[in-house]
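chain below, 113 aa
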Amino acid sequence: EIVQVLPALHLKPQWAAMLAKPDFEQYVPSLRTLRDRVEKDKIKMNGDLAVLFKAAGEVALPGGAFDLAIEFLNRAIGFFKATTEVDCSQLISQCEQLVEHAQKKLAVRGRKK
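prediction:
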């Protein structure tokens, strides 16, 4: 599953443990600012922004911002699905897996309240 692979990408095994939730939480305010600026400036969705949104979702998820992750990933999925120039099926699949994982985390969080 991609969620388990993300922290280990491009890292030596001893460094993987450093990518725990607290390390990603620090980026959540910047991700919210990104979302707000895109909305405020009415930036048109394109391939670059879709890939940025996918990456933002990948960072928001381990940061515990599950709603934000879902928002970013769903917006990326929308663009990838509408793209016909290149095959985005892998990107769509990865985003959908991450959304599913975030939804499960939200459900668990809801049961704990």
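The CA atoms of residues 55 and 73 lie 8 Å apart. The mean pLDDT is 86.
thats it, cya
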